[in-house]
């Protein structure tokens, strides 16, 4: 009888269900931590490419093996003070993009497009990124020449190991123009697919 009791406990449907749920949660957390993470678009900074509330999948693997490319959409931690538009520890003149970020790493997640790579020379004219003396081809942006950070004619050089980020909605994006380039180690992953809302499902 004792043996039968042990067998019935092992085959208890409730125990099996709990184990399945625990394993599923563990797998989901592991996938989010190391492989793919879902992300909800929190603001209008990436309009028209990404709308507020749209959801994307972020590849967390590729940044470990290769640096992001110009034009990639990435999720990252910005510098401390980015929410307030703080440029570095010493501030910044109004006629150039922020050349150096604060030294601290924020816990907030931002999503922007990579515009400048390490060593690139960057300035902004009428909301358009001018990189190494040439306007980027950016058919995906919503241009704006009137916002406070849309006309920054003095060039800066992106520091080694850092990336200059800008939102596609140039007049409504707080980005590297205000708070500086982002170290590669602070990049969480590359957005590669949108899965919500249904009409916008597809690769980015």
What is the topology?
Layout: H1 2-10, H2 13-34, E1 36-40, E2 55-59, E3 73-76, E4 110-116, E5 121-125, E6 128-131, E7 134-135, E8 152-157, E9 162-166, H3 176-179, E10 182-183, E11 187-196, E12 202-203
Antiparallel strand pairs: 1-2, 2-11, 3-4, 3-11, 4-9, 5-6, 5-8, 6-7, 9-10, 11-12
Commentary on this structure:
The protein has 204 residues and is an alpha+beta fold. The chain folds into 2 domains: 2-33; 39-203, Umud Fragment, subunit A, CATH 2.10.109. It contains 3 helices and 12 strands, in the order ααβββββββββαβββ. Strands 1, 2, 3, 4, 9, 10, 11 and 12 form an 8-stranded antiparallel sheet that branches. It has a 4-stranded antiparallel sheet with strand order 7-6-5-8, with no helix packed on it. β6 (128-131) and β7 form a beta hairpin. The protein is globular. The model is unreliable at 1-9 and 22-34 (pLDDT under 50).
């Amino acid at each position: 009888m004792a043996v039968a009791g042990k067998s019935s406990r092992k085959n208890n449907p409730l125990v099996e269900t709990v184990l399945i749920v625990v394993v599923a949660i563990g797998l989901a957390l592991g996938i989010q931590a190391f492989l793919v993470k879902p992300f909800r678009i929190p603001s209008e900074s990436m309009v028209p490419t990404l709308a507020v509330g749209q959801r994307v999948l972020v590849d967390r693997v590729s940044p470990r093996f290769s640096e992001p490319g110009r034009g990639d959409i990435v999720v990252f931690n910005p510098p401390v003070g980015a929410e307030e538009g703080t440029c570095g520890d010493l501030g910044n003149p109004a006629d150039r993009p922020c050349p150096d970020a604060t030294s601290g790493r924020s816990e907030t997640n931002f999503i922007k497009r990579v515009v400048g790579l390490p060593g690139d020379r960057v300035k902004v004219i009428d909301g358009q990124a001018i990189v190494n003396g040439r306007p980027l081809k950016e058919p995906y942006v919503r241009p704006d020449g009137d916002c406070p950070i849309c006309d920054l004619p003095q060039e800066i050089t992106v520091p080694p190991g850092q990336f200059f980020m800008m939102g596609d909605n140039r007049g409504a994006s707080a980005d590297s123009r205000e708070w500086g380039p982002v170290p590669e180690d602070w990049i969480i992953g590359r957005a590669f697919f949108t899965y919500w809302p249904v009409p916008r499902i597809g690769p980015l």
